[in-house]
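My main concern about presentation is that the manuscript never shows what a single data entry looks like. In essence, backbone conformation is discretised, so a fold becomes a row of integers matching the chain in length. An entry of this sort, consisting of the sequence and the corresponding backbone structure tokens, reads as follows:
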Amino acid sequence: MAYGETSPLDLPRPIPGGYGNRLFLFVMRRMATAGVNDAHAANAMLGAFGRSYRRPLVLMRAMMLELARASSRKILVAPCCCARMTADEALMMQATGDALRDPNAAYDQVSELLGNDHALGALTCLQAVAHAHSDLGRPLDLYAAG
């Protein structure tokens, strides 16, 4: 890239704090780039949740597959090593944080992320992932957009 050029990948937001949020973001990025059966994503879940890793791992896989199925647009994901998030990743983190507290707002956010109004399945997956992380001690906190 030449001096003065901007990256084609806009990274407007910093990555969120909290181990649960960073774990979610890492696993989501790994599954988006290497597939839902990525060994690094599974190992990260095993390291975070111990022997109880299967439930959040399977739910993350289902969430990623549902997002891919229901989306009518490309969802931009940054590389795993990136210290900032794309607008799509920030919107997904926001929707996941809101999924349990305010499902109506989360539905609107997921609809915007997917580019269509067929977001009920994706919202249900986000809620299941958020429940699994909370139940196992790695809650997904609301990622403040501002």
